[in-house]
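Why does residue order matter? Because the sequence determines the fold. Keep that principle in mind as you read this record.
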Amino acid sequence: MRSKVRASFKPPAGFTLIELLVVIAIIAVLIALLLPAVQSAREAARRAQCANNLKQLGLAVYNYESANGSFPLAYPQRATWDVTGSDGTVGDSGWGDWSPHALILPYLEQNGIYNAINFSTAASDNEDDGRQATAICSQLNTLLCPSSPMPVGTMDYGPGSDSAGLTWINARFPGNNYFASIGPSLCPWTSARPPGIFGISTPGQGGSVGVRDVQDGTSNTIAFAEWRAGDCDSMKLSIQDVINLFTYTTAGNFGTWNNDGGASSMPAAGMANFTTFLNTCAGAAPGSLGPGSNKNPGWASNKSYIGREWAQGMLGHTLGTTLLPPNSQYPNCNLEPWGGDFDAPSMINPSSYHPGGANVAFADGSVRFVKSSTNWNTMWAIGSKAGNDIVSADSY
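Structure:
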């Protein structure tokens, strides 16, 4: 008998539409689960880099003190300035003065930039005829937190005329995410004696601060903290905005508190005035938005350009305060009556893009993370150098 082999038909191997949809759905779920972890890992790396930058600053300022017997001055003025006009420096406002960041450049392995600076001239952007623009506009990675966007805008350097044969120089702001702390004080001037480690000096006066003056201990006193660079947009409110009140007479009631160097010893009346001040700043914030007018331009009311450069020793540029914890619900505030730069009493506190707080470098070179939930008294304690108010690290 013949056997007949019947050819059997087999369909080609493959996935059905339902199987493909199931696989795609599984992949989508896995991505959704992994993406936050990847983003968290990236932020952890950025935060670690930010902490390392502050570590370098903390060690640099500590080594500076070891070599010079004092910490760098916040307003290191010179007897004469090579500038035209009378606004190179005004009293001890900080206009045109050099920053602690500029003075510690050799300790950050930036000798080239340091040697290119002529410290006999002013540090303000267009007071020196643009002769130092190359150095001042240099971008320093050590001063940039990778979690923070770069500041928007450009710096203009030049003589205002071509009579000296010089030309205008236009360069992008180099950026600076780390401020030198003047402590829990509104006023950074010599007369106020702010309680931070960076002394304030005017021509003919002292003001240097050394380790010997840090009675609370260098491991308990903030040297540098981070802030968000300004977005230079006066049409929207941001944590890093500085609201200018132009005038606020109640601020004068903080005088005794600012002078005594002990932040936690604020009298009851001072606390009430400070709370009023905070609420006044918050209330003025919405009205600071807009293009403004010729008399009161938007950029003078909503100063959203903090941290745009590192050379000038002034609140908002390179100096900040420790009156409130990081990323506070209250806005930063400036009390500049003529509406110009930051050279006036101000409250400019830590801020960051890190969830839950900000990195801070202490005067001994150590770096710690200060939580946004830290209470006011603790911030005042770790911001002042000699307030007899040492607190444990678990309180912040």
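The first helix runs from residue 17 to 68.
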